[in-house]
Structure prediction request, 691 residues.
Amino acid sequence: MNFKHLFGLTCAFGLAATSAFALPKATDLVADMGLGYNIGNTMEVPGNPTAWGNDFPTAEYVKAIKAAGFNTVRIPCAWDSHASNGTINAGWLDSVKTVVDLVIGEGMYAMLNSHWDNGWLEDHVFDGMGYDKTGEVNSSAATVAAKQESYWKQIATKFAAYDEHLIFASANEPGVNDPWFEGGTDGGQWGFDENRMKVLKSFHEACIKGVRAAGGNNATRTIIVQAPRTEIDKAPLLSSNMPTDPTGAGYIMAEVHYYPYQYSLMTADESWGTQYYYYYDMPSSTDKTHNMGWNVYSKSIDDQALGTPKQIAKAFGELKTMFCDKGIPVVIGEMGAVKRLDALTGANLKLHLEGRAAWYGEVAKVAKANGIIPCVWDTGDEGNGNFTIVRRQTKKFGGKVGDITDYETLNAMRKAYGMAAIEGNSIDALVNASLDESNKMLEVTYNTVTSDSSEVGTLRFNVSSKNWSNYTAISFQAKIDVEATGPVDDVTWMTLSLFAMSGDTWKWDDYNFDASELDGGWATYTVPLNEEGLNIENKAAVNAFGFNLYGTQLKGKIDFDNIRLIKADGSAVVLADFDKKFGGETEGIASATRVTSTAPAITNAIKPVVASASKMFVNVQQGFVNATFTATEAASASAKLINGLGQVIASQNFTTRKGSNTVQLKAAYRGPAMLVIKQGSQMQTQKVILK
Prediction:
């Protein structure tokens, strides 16, 4: 630990913020920053850092990152969702400080950014192109820049005495009104031009101004600014429009991200190109169309396609020329490629995983050679499509916090940085698991943690814009053994929901099962894909589907098997039978395990689940919720709105009449809630967003 580092920590824990010394320039930090690691899907989650499945970072986890060979930790962070009337909550600043101190306490560099956080920075801005991805343009760029400046002044004031081991980053992947639309000329988006770059430049300059005005060591603290969307191809726009720093030259870094799409993120083959499963230097001889660089038109390999060694060298060399050679270091704030655990098995899976590790090693090697700092992305998940190297979700995946989950990828990067390999093997277990073809089902266990607030367990399957237009229903086998454990009172409830997300906006549609529809034993449930069942807005582009179990004070399990899509003629295709792999992911109070199936053979006899009495139609207006439903008889009933804490925020007792009924509740509350209508032993529920 050097003197400056020790001084910075001492000041951080108690001394007043004063400009004790000029911090080193950005170029002086590069060699020591080494490899970088992201604590992703945590501090940037709007409102709640644990809402996406990761625990709050612990000392044990941060120590493991250091031990793995990383010396920089990027902390994606939300601010606007933790602010009221323009002031960041003091408790949230303390929480962020806890994570920063854990990182710096291990002698590492902490890069603290402003992440997406519901798009407050880059969406809804009427300057620039004058249009945004939601079509709801409602903020001027000047107003957004003022908020950006204010937030960063508050953040920088909190950390004013920290030394050079704390670095600020203005944004994440700023698009500035970047709508996706059919036929877009720029990767499906509007072209990012000089006018929009001026807006982004003003946001970066607002960050710099706020930090510099905060006093202490912020006068010379390194600040990172991002290229449009943080795309390498857009780096020239940043290079020619670098923000002005009142401190002068030498204290700014530039940031891009590196996800060569077909290799890193693409999950379905398209007419214009295929997914790349296998690294360029380790091609498959039996699956040539998924080798990196495969050209669907020429039926050959392009050695300069995105992700190939030549393309990496060219792109990183251009970054060096544009920035590094001018005294502006470059950070690859995020990089990575998904593990394709669902698409491949056996030898092909092994080849994919070994090649993927080699690709990470190549990126790290070329980055280091060009004086660029690479930071690997991590979400904490270990299922299909994951990037994780250091374990943190032990409740879901077992083991202990800090276990290495991908020795091969880690060692390839360590080798690029001259570090010895860490002994271990992660690939063989994944390959062996992929060969298990016995009859399996998915056992999903639910167990609430709190007793006074509602919780949700999610089982989700990503299907990447599949066309369900030719299907009339979705069916599945399930054995339901979940029960409420608390007293039967007004705020104890549970319901099962089948949902789907579709289209470019991932529109959410769901069907809520009435309690009377759910059988305790094995049953086959079939839900129409229409307005009487799961009414998907865009059946031609379904992105994901799954199940949510909502409730308070509950525990138990649901066994799922043979999830299928049904055609009008009764034929079916299997979405998931779990015989080979899970193929999905769980969140919240749900955890899943593949076990030997006990489901009976599928027959034509099905358990009907959709009846006119089981569907509720809800209309939400500002201050009101109107629910229309069908009752089988006249009887006493109650309607309640329950917020996320399990509190009844509105209620009404009434008497139904046989047939259609409508009830209205007033609610001076905004945000998610659950509408519950009870009639005798029957209960209907619907998730609503109150305005």
Summary: The longest strand covers residues 554-566. The radius of gyration is 27 Å.
